[in-house]
């Protein structure tokens, strides 16, 4: 996936600024261990980095947003009887199966966070982090995020970069 980087100047400007970026993102889609069509799995790897200037510090946070289009809820299996009363009374069981489908959700999978040191380039890398999504009958989308939380005596600020959304 392509690299992403942004620079920010907190309110008040001056010598204060911060940078956030990510690079070398790889997504390896793997077959689900349970062999279910409603399960998706991947191993993800990336490097995220940040630098704060003129701050007391900050925090670098990385992870993934995971979106599922349609989720499968609880279902029931049973029978409803048809009772016929007459000269020859009878009972006919009719099998019934129900399945609950619901609009999908977007969740957040936090991978790591690290305190930042002013003036130093801070990096977080992860390799082959396992992501799995269960009970999703529609498409699954992944998008990497990297956040910097900037802290100074005068200003608290934050900024982010996001990877390109991709299917799982």
Automatic annotation (TrEMBL):
InterPro entries: Leukocidin/porin_MspA_sf, Porin_fam_mycobact-type
Pfam families associated with the record: MspA
Keywords for the protein's UniProt record, in alphabetical order: Signal
SUPFAM superfamilies assigned: Leukocidin-like
Signal in keyword set: yes
Identification of the protein by name: MspA protein
